[in-house]
Design a protein that fits this description.
440 residues, alpha+beta, ten-stranded mixed beta sheet, 16 helices, RNaseH-like_sf, Transposase IS4-like domain-containing protein, Transpos_IS4, DNA recombination
């Protein structure tokens, strides 16, 4: 674990330098009668971190913790469009602060400089905010924000959340344009499947592990077009590992491997129903090829078998679920998709402040419990919330911030570790052992 000095510096700069500077540039704080920019940020971020569904009354009761005494009316009047714009600026500044810890040196993850999980989640907003954040339309909300992240499962480094219009495609988020680094592994779902981008990654020395789209076009290594569904049906292996060429244009072929794992009839039927329902909403009919491929879990990778076995590739793709758990934490623990008001400006303030809170929480958890490869991220977040007053005291200077963070780390480390199980081991234990238990 690296020194906590970078975390102390990041917190102090964000709260006492960046927030006041941005507030001054935007003319947010004219007189310091009730709030300074720093105390306003502390109140909103840590107030909603401590009480995610708090209204102005509960925030007013929390205000003494950050050194101010104000009425609920004073807080109500501060939740304006200008404040929301300022909080968004602070969030964007915080996103550029990249913290990481010592990378794991054992297990499957240790083979690669980084194991990057990429995904997005969409937060629906009231229709009154469609002028600012446009949704995808149709049956969905006319207003939505798409949050894009890229998370290194080895070092804990988090890029994002990057905010985009809800209607934007996943592959158009700013996190998707970031370089991966030679030798790194990039893991993503089918929404990111693009032969052009996969070809670029392959040329840059990046290993990709991704679920393909249903309209997958493949050829044998000799160049013969392959009916993948029929070919897989003729094989009886538990895990099928095929060397193929991806794409339908000979000059643009990409050498890769397709790893196929058969699923139960029940799972296959549910997948077909999902494909039919999705196609019906979009006004077309799914291809017979896509429906036939629903019988298998398919993974595409460019890693040679001597570097990554089929089971290891399946295990890395299973680890992609960790980013889904991160989004679940933000929603069920941070309640970033819920708000205590019906007023659009209030909702924006709450939404942006909660995202800042989730980012600060991520920084603290990285420093506090990333040493434990079997950490339960959700439980760690609950334990951190219990220690939040200690962090506020450190930020306000009543005790050294480094001492406060050290006490939080002591409270969290080892208290939220997932125990080993003889059956159905956790993903963390499988990553250390390099054994995919999904086949048993």
């Amino acid at each position: 674990m690296k020194s906590i000095a970078p975390l102390c510096q990041a917190l102090e700069e964000l709260i006492y330098k960046d927030a006041p500077r941005l507030a001054q540039e935007q003319g947010l704080i004219v007189r310091h009668r009730c709030f300074s920019a720093s105390t306003l940020l502390l109140l909103l971020v840590f107030g909603w971190l401590k009480h995610p569904l708090a209204g102005p009354s509960q925030l007013a009761r929390f205000a003494h913790s950050v050194g101010v005494r104000v009425s609920k009316q004073a807080i109500f009047e501060r939740l304006t469009k200008n404040t929301a714009h300022w909080l968004l600026s602070v969030l964007q500044q915080a996103v550029h602060t990249l913290l990481l810890t010592s990378s794991l040196s054992v297990g499957l993850l240790a083979r690669f400089p980084a194991v990057l999980l990429e995904d997005t989640t969409c937060i629906e907003l009231p229709s009154a905010l469609a002028w600012l954040w446009k949704g995808s339309g149709g049956n969905a909300s006319p207003s939505a924000v798409k949050l894009g992240v890229r998370w290194d499962l080895r070092s804990g480094r988090l890029d994002g959340p990057a905010l985009h219009q809800g209607r934007d495609h996943d592959s158009r988020t700013s996190t998707h344009t970031l370089p991966c680094g030679q030798g790194s592994v990039w893991v993503a779902d089918a929404a990111y499947y693009s032969l052009k981008q996969l070809r670029q990654m392959d040329q840059q020395g990046v290993v990709f592990v991704i679920r393909p789209r249903g309209n997958l076009a493949v050829s044998t290594p000799e160049g013969q077009r392959l009916d993948l569904a029929s070919h897989l049906s003729a094989l009886t292996d538990t895990v099928i590992d095929l060397s193929v060429r991806l794409g339908s244009i000979r000059s643009l072929w990409l050498n890769a491997r397709i790893i196929a794992l058969p699923v139960s009839d029940e799972v296959a039927q549910k997948r077909r129903e999902h494909l039919l329902d999705k196609a019906n909403k979009q006004g077309h009919v799914p291809s017979s090829h896509a429906l036939a491929l629903a019988r298998w879990t398919l993974i595409v990778t460019n890693a040679p078998v001597e570097r990554l076995s089929a089971e290891e590739a399946l295990l890395l793709f299973r680890a992609r679920w960790q980013v889904e758990l991160l989004f679940k934490l933000w929603k069920s623990h941070g309640h970033v998709d819920e708000w205590s008001s019906q007023l659009p400006d209030h909702i924006l303030c709450e939404f942006y402040a909660k995202l800042i809170a989730m980012l600060v929480e991520h920084w603290v958890l990285l420093e506090s419990c990333w040493d434990d490869p079997h950490r339960n991220w959700m439980l760690c977040a609950d334990l951190f919330r219990d220690q939040l007053s200690l962090l506020v005291l450190g930020i306000r200077g009543y005790i050294p911030l480094s001492q406060a963070l050290a006490c939080i780390r002591e409270a969290l480390l080892g208290s939220a570790s997932i125990p080993a199980r003889s059956t159905r081991p956790s993903t963390s234990h499988q990553l250390l052992d390099g054994v995919y238990w999904g086949l048993t």
